[in-house]
C-alpha cells in the first residue's frame, strides 16, 4: 500500500518533459531543500561565489543567462544573486520556459 501510494506521489510530480528529455520538477526538490533548509547564510554565499567564479568563464551571455535561470528554478533569489554576480539581466522562467530556451517541447 505504501509503495503504491509513494509511486502515485512521484508519478504526479513527473511531467511530460521528463519522459521526453529527462527534466521534471522532481529534479529540483532535493537541491532546493539543500540550499533552503540545510545551508546557512555563509554556505549560501560560498555556493553563489563558486557558481559565479565558474560561470563567469562562459563567453556567451545567453548561456550565462540560462545558468541563472537554471539556479532560479531551485530558488528565485539564488538565480537573481547569480545573475547579479555574472552581470547579466535576471529573467526568471518556469520549468516550461526554461525547457523552451533549450528547444525542448512538451510530449503532449
Describe the structure.
- With 108 residues, the protein is mainly alpha-helical.
- The chain has a domain at 27-101: Catalase, four-helical domain (Hemocyanin, N-terminal domain, Up-down Bundle), CATH 1.20.1370.20.
- The protein has seven helices and no strands.
- It has helices at 2-13, 16-21, 26-38, 41-55, 61-74, 76-86, 95-101.
- The longest helix is centred in the middle third of the chain and has 15 residues, at 41-55.
- Mean pLDDT is 84; it is low at 104-108.
Secondary-structure map with pairings?
Layout: H1 2-13, H2 16-21, H3 26-38, H4 41-55, H5 61-74, H6 76-86, H7 95-101
Helix pairs in contact: 4-6, 5-6
List keywords for this structure.
108 residues; mainly alpha; Hemocyanin, N-terminal domain; disordered C terminus
How many helices does DSSP assign?
Answer: 7
Order of helices and strands: HHHHHHH
**Strand content range:** under 5%
Structural class: mainly alpha
Shape estimate = globular
* CATH architecture designation of the domain at 27-101: Up-down Bundle
CATH class of the domain at 27-101: Mainly Alpha
* CATH fold label of the domain at 27-101: Hemocyanin, N-terminal domain
Stretches where pLDDT is under 50 for at least 5 consecutive residues are 104-108
Helix content: over 70%
The main pleated sheet reads as: none
Number of strands: 0
Based on CA atoms alone, the radius of gyration comes out at 16 Å
Distance between the termini: 30 Å
- What's the overall average pLDDT, rounded? 84
CATH superfamily of the domain at 27-101: Catalase, four-helical domain
Amino acid at each position: 500500500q505504501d509503495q503504491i501510494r509513494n509511486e502515485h506521489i512521484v508519478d504526479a510530480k513527473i511531467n511530460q518533459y521528463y519522459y521526453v528529455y529527462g527534466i521534471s520538477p522532481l529534479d529540483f526538490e532535493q537541491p532546493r531543500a539543500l540550499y533552503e533548509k540545510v545551508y546557512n547564510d555563509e554556505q549560501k554565499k560560498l555556493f553563489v561565489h563558486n557558481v559565479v567564479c565558474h560561470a563567469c568563464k562562459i563567453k556567451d551571455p545567453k548561456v550565462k543567462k540560462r545558468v541563472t535561470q537554471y539556479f532560479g528554478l531551485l530558488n528565485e533569489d539564488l538565480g537573481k544573486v547569480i545573475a547579479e554576480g555574472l552581470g547579466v539581466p535576471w529573467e526568471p522562467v518556469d520549468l516550461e520556459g526554461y525547457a523552451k530556451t533549450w528547444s525542448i517541447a512538451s510530449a503532449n
